[in-house]
Design brief:
The chain is mostly helical. Helices cover about 80% and strands about 0% of the residues. The protein has helices at about 5-10, 10-40, 45-60, 65-80, 80-105, 110-135, 135-165.
Amino acid sequence: MFDIHHYRIHDPGHIKGVRTVATVEFAKGIIIVLVGLGLFSMRHKDIWGVTESFLEFLHISPHHHHHLFGVFIDLMHRVSDVRLWKIATVAALYVTGRFVEAYGLWNIRPWAEWMAIASGGVYIPFEAADLMRHPTWFRLAIIAVNVGIVLYMLMLRLEAAKKRRAGRVHP
């Protein structure tokens, strides 16, 4: 039988590690929510004006990065309302998954640890391919964090299975 208090009393490292991963997952969800709200709020606005204001706020010259911002503005103009709602639906599902996973991890639920292994593991091949195509330190950091989370959660689940086999009852 699972006893969350056992972990809290006897293994504070487990609690701290899992809650750190929960915080990362929660942050991913918040970032997607903020980006989505930002994009959604710009759907009927002057995209170039909004982009220029944002760049000015960040003290970035659009003249030095005009290609990147041209691509962004072109993308925003091509997004129809129907497509925007489809993107919003997918983003809402993704965010819901991140928040459910974060909740489960924060409360030290084994199903959430398995969920973290599965959801993180799914992205690794795509992240690796992206890193090979366009190697950057940022992409390397993203894949390193993701692989670290998957390996850590896998270690916890294998450790729990080992304890169960040894006679200690943990899920």
